[in-house]
Write a structure and sequence with these properties.
Layout lengths: L5 E7 L23 H13 L4 E5 L13 H6 L12 H6 L5 E7 L5 H14 L4 E6 L4 H6 L8 H21 L6 E4 L4 E3 L7 E4 L4 E5 L12 E5 L3 H10 L2 E4 L4 H17 L8 E10 L3 H12 L4 H12 L21 H6 L11 H9 L6 E4 L1 H15 L3 E5 L5 H16 L12 H6 L22
Parallel strand pairs: 1-2, 1-13, 2-3, 3-4, 4-9, 9-10, 10-11, 11-12, 11-13
Antiparallel strand pairs: 5-6, 7-8
Helix pairs in contact: 4-6, 6-7, 7-8, 10-12, 13-14
This protein binds flavin mononucleotide.
Flavin mononucleotide binds next to strand 3, strand 10 and helix 11.
Keywords: Flavoprotein, FMN, Monooxygenase, Oxidoreductase
GO molecular function, one term: monooxygenase activity
Enzyme class: oxidoreductase
Length: 459
């Protein structure tokens, strides 16, 4: 049977997110990103469309690689200004019952102990609908904000992240036994101290000295783990830790080998490769007729900011595109920024040559994924073909304008996919992990490394 098509909405607590310049479109509301009504409306729209989740990117640091200055990013609101994402979630959780939240948090700038508590708090408040996209950053500007000259080297960041994961697993899984909290009013005992254990860690990068996790057990304990980044070292990290992987690439030809490489590495670590859910990025533009969809797309394109697109691309790749001629070919450079973004427009598809002008065209709407335009039937056909060609499990849907594009998906595409039997007619019950992996799976199980840190009798 063909697998279910899962949808995440891809957004960020900033203006326009991956569609630089589109904030100037009269129907785009992302310039209201700093007020709750925008986020509340978005969450309600997504739940109406039975989206599995809202995936919130977050980038620490300003995009100042382009022209060696933040000016282009500031002028065009290229993910600058940008607010903190976790603080949005309580408000959105309060107006939804089933929508999951995959939220990005950069581990390079915060010790594990306070971070683990914040995620546990969100897991409580969302009643188990929280996921964490584990990132280590790619901008030197973030490192400078933390008092360093530049960011830690690419592969070293992943090594540090491996250790960070060990520490948060200890806190989430290894401090409180399931039966620790009694809430016994008669005896006046809230927690049985004998069932709360101290955590120790003494590693190359982190120390935890004989302390307990501050939050009582939350529904999922460890949040659903996402990872994005598909360099060889990134894939190793994903194969070990990720339950969901988010990747971007311009074509099925680029995505398919990344999917199979991660599945193979996970299998080599004893994990079930089918249980690492792969989400690839796509932008979807719908119309009731093909002409209407094409007109909508053409209208959106008139709002693209080329300078904003290059400011983003310069940040993602660490390459300053400001001095490039528009018809110049982009050549591969290896540095300490993200490698997947550079590979996408250089060596991932040897049959395709990218000029700077092509990069602007491509990044201008929806960032680094394909843009699919058409009627609900046409788009559903293309999505089915994409699933067939790539073996992904879901899409991370970027937008040109928000929430308008998500309203179109909820109203037009979701009924079509449901009719084809490829989309859930209703949400499954339970936590985000149960919705993704099945009833009774609220917590991570062996052979995932987190399960190895569990203490006491588990229920
Ligand atoms: C599709 C995609 C989405 C990403 N989202 C974020 C993000 O929201 N915040 C962030 O700091 N890094 C993000 N990254 C960067 C990755 O986490 C990673 O640091 C970067 O891609 C470098 O790793 P790589 O060379 O293995 O790709 C993303 C990367 C990809 C490919």
């Amino acid at each position: 049977m063909a697998k279910e098509i899962r949808l995440n909405a891809f957004a960020m607590n900033c203006v326009a997110h991956q569609s630089p310049g589109l904030w100037t479109h009269p129907r785009d509301r992302t310039a209201e990103y700093n007020r709750l009504p925008y986020w509340i409306d978005l969450a309600r729209t997504l739940e109406r469309g039975r989206f599995d989740g809202l995936f919130l990117a977050d980038v620490l640091g300003v995009y100042d690689v382009y022209g060696n200055s933040p000016d282009a990013a500031l002028r065009n609101a290229a993910q600058t200004p940008s607010n903190e994402p976790l603080l949005l979630l309580s408000a959105m959780a309060a107006v939804t019952q089933n929508l999951g939240f995959g939220v990005t948090s950069n581990l390079s700038f915060e010790p594990p102990y306070p971070f683990a508590r914040r995620m546990s708090t969100l897991d409580h408040l969302t009643e188990g609908r929280i996921g964490w996209n584990v990132v280590t950053g790619y901008l030197d500007s973030a490192a400078r904000g933390a008092g360093k000259d530049k960011q830690t080297g690419h592969d070293d960041r992943y090594d540090i992240a491996d250790e960070y994961m060990e520490v948060v697993y200890k806190l989430w899984e290894g401090s409180w036994e399931d039966a620790a909290v009694l809430r016994d009013r008669k005896r006046g005992i809230f927690t049985d101290p004998g069932k709360v254990h101290r955590v120790n860690h003494d590693g190359a990068n982190y120390r935890i000295n004989n302390t307990i996790h501050l939050s009582e057990p939350s529904p999922q304990r460890t949040p659903v783990l996402y990872q994005a980044g598909t360099s060889p070292r990134g894939r190793q990290f994903a194969a070990r830790h990720a339950e969901c992987v988010f990747m971007s690439g311009p074509s099925a030809k680029v995505i398919a080998p990344r999917v199979s490489a991660i599945r193979q590495e996970a299998a080599a670590l004893g994990r079930n490769p089918a249980e690492i859910l792969m989400f690839s990025m796509m932008t979807i533009i719908l119309g009731r007729t093909e002409a209407e969809a094409k007109e909508k797309y053409a209208d959106y394109r008139r709002h693209i900011s080329p300078e904003g697109a290059l400011a983003l691309m310069s940040g993602w790749t660490g390459v300053d595109f400001s001095g490039y001629d528009l018809d110049q070919q982009v050549r591969h450079v290896q540095n300490d920024a993200g490698r997947s973004a550079m590979d996408n427009v250089t060596r991932a598809d040897p049959d395709r040559i990218w000029t700077v002008r092509d990069v602007i065209e491509h990044v201008g709407i929806g960032g680094a994924g394909p843009v699919v335009v058409g009627t609900p039937e046409m788009v559903a056909d293309k999505i089915e073909q994409w699933f067939e060609a790539t073996d992904v499990d879901g899409l991370n849907v970027a937008f040109a304008i928000s929430p308008g594009d998500f309203e179109d998906i909820a109203d037009m595409l979701v009924p079509e996919l449901t009719k084809r039997g490829r989309y859930k007619p209703d949400y499954a019950k339970g936590t985000l992990r149960e919705k993704l992996f099945g009833a009774g799976r609220a917590r991570l199980g062996a052979p995932h490394p987190a399960a190895g840190y569990r203490v006491g009798k588990t229920g």
